[in-house]
Amino acid sequence: MAVQTQAGVYEKLGVKRIVNGAGTITRFGGSLMPHEVIAAMAEAARSFVDVDELYVKCGEVVAKHTGAEAGLVTTGCAASLMLGTAAAVAGKDPAKHRRLPDTTGMKNEVVIHTSHRNGYDHSFRAAGVKFVEIGYANRTEPWELEAAITENTAAVAYVIAPWLTQGFLPLDQTCEIAHNKGVPVIVDSSAMLPPAENLTKWIAMGADLVAFSGGKGIRGPQASGILAGKKELIDAARMQMSPNHALGRTCKVGKEEAIGLVTALELYAQRDHAADMAEWRRQAQLIVDDVGRVPGVTARVEQHPRRAPTPSALIEFEADWAGPTPSQIAAKLRAGDPPVYVGATGESIRVNTHVLEPGDAELIAGRLRGALSG
Question: What is the pTM of this model?
């Protein structure tokens, strides 16, 4: 198995490698890059280039695969959102660029659904804007968005994520209302690949800027991201970014990461996505079949186009279950060698198969069965 045979670069630091049954989560390293991406990054490291020219050319690759007018490589989805918001606030005005995040005298409000507020929305606010919330947690009316957009509105923020299920207007309706008011819509779609069609879907629905993580489903460098959208806004975002001295100076995309990201994006566009889904489902079913034999446990494969776009093995417990709690089971898995990380709530255990390596499903099934029996 990969965990046992990889080189010991982490062990030299005293860091344990893990089996990741939790998915493309930042705290566990996102995803693993294909060999072609690693090779491309190594080649990129052996030459100097003009990074402005590199960013433009990489942006053309992003635009090609997203269906957008233009694209930009960034240091992650969070950076994409900050740069996109800064572009909506300051445009191409260099004097405004130098002042951000001080937005005094500029359009400095971003409208957002109340139901879209989450821990990641600081990425928008980092550009110096303040949020104007609309709607309730479970319902928003079109007139609320129309009323919230004023002469101080720089953009409308829109979040697309698996955990969001209600309380917001559809994206196409949001875009229509915002565009009628002359305001762009910026979409946070960090972890919404797969399914692969999302790469072009939000742009086709009218979004002005869409941000994706580069180190999750695309399998590029973890510290990479994509911003795709209208050329005017992308050009303004690039002016905010390193090597320029503006808000995004901290968002320095190395030549290696830029090449790694576009290489991964090209590979992603060529993948057999149906075959990927079938393999993830096979792994989930293997775990379900094995663990489901434990008395008092029910197990099934769960997949939902929005809430769970990749197949997961969901383990739930019958009312008379007297064994360890989900949190205790997860802790036991983490304490093993190698540590195994899975999702755990008060009622269930979830194994996300998206980034499992060959042999991981079998290992997780055996470890789970032992933890449940114990």
Answer: 0.93
From the list 361, 282, 359, 355, the residue with the least C-alpha distance to 3 is 359
Q: How far apart are CA 287 and CA 345, in angstroms?
A: 18
Same structural domain, 282 and 152 = no
**Burial class (CB within 10 angstroms; exposed 0-12, middle 13-18, buried 19+) of 15:** exposed
* 254 φ/ψ angles, rounded to the nearest 5 degrees: -65, 155
Residues 152 and 208 in one domain: yes
Q: Which letter does DSSP use for residue 248 in this model?
A: B
pLDDT in tens, 235-280: 999 999 999 999 999 999 999 999 999 999 999 999 999 999 999 9
Please check the confidence at residue 3 and state whether its pLDDT lies above 50: no
Give 55's contacts (C-beta < 8 A, 6+ positions apart).
72, 73, 238, 241, 253, 258
Site of tokens 């402005």: 52
Nearest to 74 by CA among 92, 55, 60: 55
In a 3-state reduction of DSSP, which class is residue 346? coil
- Shared domain for 236 and 335, answered yes or no, is no
Sorted by sequence, the CB contacts under 8 Å of residue 65 that are 6+ apart come out as 199, 200, 265, 266, 268, 269
Residue with tokens 């093993």: 336
CATH classification at residue 340: 3.90.1150.180
Scan for tokens 């149906």, then name that residue. Answer: 274
Same domain, yes or no, for 60 and 208? yes
Exposed/middle/buried for residue 112 (C-beta within 10 Å: 0-12, 13-18, 19+) = buried
Structure tokens at 256: 């290696």
- The alpha carbons of the chain give a radius of gyration, in whole angstroms, of 22
Tell me the one-letter amino acid at 146.
E
Residue pair 359/340 in contact (Cβ under 8 Å)? The answer is: no
Q: Which of 270, 294, 317 is the last residue of a domain?
A: 270
- Is 251 in contact with 232 (CB distance < 8 Å)? no
- Boundary of a domain, candidates 251, 270, 289: 270
Reduce the DSSP state of residue 342 to 3 states and report it: strand
| Whether pLDDT at 5 is above 50 | no
Q: Where in the sequence is the domain holding 317, given as residue range(s)?
A: 2-30+272-373
